[in-house]
Amino acid sequence: MEGAVRVQILSQMGISEVPSQYIQPPKNRPGSVTENIADLSCKHVPAVDLSSEKESVLPAIREACRDWGAFHVINHGVPTKLLDDLRRACFSFFNDFPMEDKLKYACNPNFAASEGYGSRLLVSSENETVLDWRDYFDHHTLPLSRRNPSAWPHFPPEYRELMANYSDEMKALVQRLLALMSESLGLKASCIEDAVREFYQNITASYYPPCPRPDLTLGLQSHSDIGAITLLIQDNVGGLQVLKDGEWLLVDPLPNAILVLVADQTEIITNGQYKTCVHRAVTNASKARLSIATFHDPAKTVRISPVSDLLLFCTVCNKEEE
């Protein structure tokens, strides 16, 4: 079992200052970030309506992936009830049950990317002593040979079934999105998925307890995802930020939407046409926040390289820009 103190315990102690290991170096602190979303209304992450005609969807996806590396999808086909029920079940696991019961599912600290309940997952490469103000539960969901629902919480009682159903829905949506992303580049619909091959899918529910010093901490440090594509749902609290043109922008939660984040391997596959999204999570002093991220990584034996059809195209484009 992981020996780290859960952040939720620290928050519930009513401390007025955060322990030193959670304090970010001055250059990484979010204190100076603009948090008034009204001031950033012209810079909102784009939203793409998947029920629209393909003639309008493809250019919208192309622009979003090139300029942002992120976009919301609406009318995506995933049942709203499933989104709501899963958020409710995950929040209940973190908030409604004794710590001694939750610790029965604690991560094994001796293995990287260990499945289970933990607090220390992503650590800054610059300063390995700085911790995120976050607890999480990581689920190994695909391929099916990795899926072991008995390793997931049995409380609330519907938790395991909801997580399995959500995993299947996310796979179907990712296949649809990768096809649209491929077509938006003039490639055959299966191109990016063919490069990724079998999905290795993990679903991570992150719980961000209230923090007494949000100006000094981060719920999740700045990073880009290492896989192919990430799908994220938030609650209505908000706290996710994306880096756009050197500025950290708050991603305002959009009801019933799913946020798409382009990850590192897709940037490689598209030869830099589509940019990986650098993002982080900030904390707040009054409300707990929940998000659920579904990561889709390439098969472990696959060597990722740019699609050949894009190599010459990108070379010509770069010369024209010069």
Structure description:
- With 322 residues, the chain is an alpha+beta fold.
- It has a single domain (39-310), classed as Sandwich (Jelly Rolls), CATH 2.60.120.
- 29% of the residues lie in helices and 20% in strands.
- The protein has helices spanning 7-12, 54-67, 80-96, 99-102, 159-184, 191-196, 264-269, 308-321; strands at residues 47-49, 70-74, 116-118, 135-142, 200-208, 220-223, 229-234, 240-244, 247-250, 258-262, 279-281, 289-297.
- The strands form two sheets. An eight-stranded mixed sheet has the order 1-2-10-7-12-5-4-3. It has a four-stranded antiparallel sheet with strand order 6-11-8-9, with no helix packed on it.
- β1 (47-49), α2 and β2 form a beta-alpha-beta unit.
- α2 (54-67) packs across α5 (159-184) and α3 (80-96) crosses α5 (159-184).
- The longest helix is centred in the middle third of the chain and has 26 residues, at 159-184.
- The chain is globular and about 55 Å long.
- The relative contact order is 0.18.
- Belongs to the iron/ascorbate-dependent oxidoreductase family.
- Keywords: Iron, Metal-binding, Oxidoreductase.
- It comes from Gossypium darwinii.
